[in-house]
# Entry
Amino acid sequence: MLPRRIRSLLFAPAVRPDLLRKMPATGADAMVIDLEDATPSDAKATAREELRSAVADLSGTIPICARINDPSTPWHHDDLDSLPEGLDAIVVPKVETVHGLDALERALEARGLDVPVVGGIETALGVADARALLSHPVIAAGYFGAEDFIADMGGVRTHSNHEVASARSQVALAGRVARISMIDMITADFTDDARCRRECEEAREIGYAGKLCIHPAQVAIANEAFTPSIEEVERARRLLAAYEDAKAKGIASVAFEGQMVDEPVAAQARTVIALAEG
Ligand code: COA
Ligand code: MG
# Structure
């Protein structure tokens, strides 16, 4: 089963059986075997074989997802036909249209595939229509793909992330409207731990539940960043105690450690506690 909350979703190319076998030991909340971007065009058939073999070997050790090629590619239907039993989710990249999702739903049904779908919002059209796409019944969770999005925009990817700020927020918002769990973009530079940590913090602040990871070093960073710290939880508990105490005295707005606390601030503290309690 796919966990309800995924803090770290670790990718590896289907054509790297060596990496796939290492994924259960990384501590990732779930792994993705990638048939799409990380598999070259001339290796799609081999990749499907590696997918079957990896699922057979790893089933039961970690939740396993397969990312297939999107419906506009010549590989999409063969990918669907070759999916093995035992997958916890299918990741569908570059989700763009509601009629495309209707077709995906029918294609899964026709093959008897009753598996949750994680939809990737990573094109200009996908971001523009994110609310309708992420609210589609076939979609169980979603992710924001910054690299493909900027490629589609004809923009430039930067360290500051200013070029993706608006789309990243819009996609988080659309996921929230759909009441699904959202996973934030990759950090391509897997040697830059500070950038990865900063991006995880930003993502959590705007409502993402986790991060796409491409390297084991990013998994521990994401798992920590998307879990409230002990200090955060203790502060939330003190804040709520002060707030409840004030409410009992007929006041709904109270000073707490130099900050005004009212209902929305209390609601944020409850979210911290709920996250910490899983
Ligand atoms: N999953 C599992 N293990 C991985 C891994 C991954 N995605 N990426 C690296 N590792 C392992 C390496 O095999 C190595 O293991 P070892 O200590 O037993 O030798 C260890 O982690 C350290 O790896 P490192 O040497 O730092 O990196 P690398 O040069 O081997 O690999 C990449 C770098 C980017 C090629 C590799 O991380 C990768 O392919 N990532 C996934 C890319 C992907 O799927 N992209 C598409 C989705 S956006
Ligand atoms: Mg991509």
Q: What stands out?
A: The mean pLDDT is 97.
